[in-house]
Amino acid sequence: MDDPELEAIRQRRMQELMAKRGVGAGGNSQNHEQQQAQEEQKREAEERRQMMLAQIVSSQARERLARIALVKPEKARGVEDVILRSAQYGQITEKVVLQVSEERLIQLLEQINEQTQKTTKVTIQRRRSVFDDD
């Protein structure tokens, strides 16, 4: 019942779909290698980041950042970014060998909270019924 032409068309279509997804004969291993290389680069970058933070931030401040990261990872990442940028531009001038103390970290957190604080406004509109007298 199967037509050889129809089978050939199906095979070509499957090959096209596989090629688009990058799952060809050699494409799969190459894609996997690229993915591994990207993951390795991300790990190295994160490792360098943590080493720089370890040099800049005091142990108490690191502990506080770790606790914040458990609850709000995006906020902790933002604070780390601010600290790293400040250190790069020489804006951190703490007394203890250029380390960010816990008090300074709390100040940074308060500043970030003020900048990102959402204000909500509630307005209540009452329905007026037909029997209300105005």
| Topology pattern, helix = H, strand = E | HHHHH
Q: Give me the number of helical elements.
A: 5
Poorly predicted sequence stretches spanning 5 or more consecutive residues = none
**Number of E strands:** 0
Radius of gyration: 29 Å
Structural class: mainly alpha
* Biggest sheet statistics: none
- Helical fraction: 55-70%
Shape: flat
CATH topology of the domain at 29-110: Helicase, Ruva Protein, domain 3
Name the CATH superfamily classification of the domain at 29-110: PDCD5, DNA-binding domain
Report the CATH C-level class of the domain at 29-110: Mainly Alpha
Named at the architecture level, the CATH assignment of the domain at 29-110 is Orthogonal Bundle
Question: What multimeric state do the chains show?
Answer: single chain
Which strand-content bin applies to the residues? under 5%
The end-to-end distance, rounded to whole angstroms, is 83 Å
- Provide the residue-averaged pLDDT: 79
Give your account of this protein's structure.
The chain has 134 residues and is an all-alpha fold. It has a domain at 29-110: PDCD5, DNA-binding domain (Helicase, Ruva Protein, domain 3, Orthogonal Bundle). The protein has helices at 4-21, 27-56, 59-71, 73-88, 102-116. Helix 2 crosses helix 4 and helix 3 (59-71) runs parallel beside helix 5. The chain starts with a helix and ends in an 18-residue tail after the last helix. The model has no long low-confidence stretch (mean pLDDT 79).
Q: What keywords describe this structure?
A:
134 residues; single chain; Helicase, Ruva Protein, domain 3; mainly alpha
